[in-house]
Amino acid sequence: MMPTNEDLLARIEALEARATAAEDYRVLMNLQAAYGYYVDKGLWDKAADLFAEEGTLEIAGRGVYVGRERVREYLKCLPEYRDGVIFNHMQLQPVLHIDSEAGTAKGRWRTLMMVGIMEAEVGRWGEATYENTYVRERGKWRIASLHGIINFYCEYDEGWHKGGVPLLRSTEGISPDRPQTFEYEAHPKAVIAPFHYDEV
């Protein structure tokens, strides 16, 4: 039986929807990876520009910063990238749920961190879960909220089997717009970052 014009139109629309979803997935993967690369090198303006105009940032229980310019202010209070500094933040293990029609998405990521400042004799490993949301703003995907929940942070030469470094609950030179979303402490305390999904 030959397909009708209606059948063919439905197939075309379904294929277009799948193509849009695939392209949105690709763009969101690049968006989050770009954030990691910019943070690695202290390119704070470029990292902030990835956020939506009203985007929020919350890291390590230090409170919530609201709006792209407040995110920029917070990031610029972090260490400057220079000789003797390592600030790697690898973006790994994505689970993305995208509503292409609505222009919204949610994502869970793992970041593995290597932080080092030679002059301060600081060298640490860290790992965190990101539970993020995204929005299509003026035709471009942007980070609507970035929430980094630290799972462990430890001295590089001692390892996590010795415990961990307590989370720093504030950032010098700036105060958050809202308190942290929930109270927690990193390893050796057990913490499970809230999931945006019940099933994949």
TrEMBL record:
Coiled coil: none annotated. This is SnoaL-like domain-containing protein. Signal peptide: none annotated. Pfam families: SnoaL_4. Residues 22-146 form the SnoaL-like domain. It comes from the Bacteria.
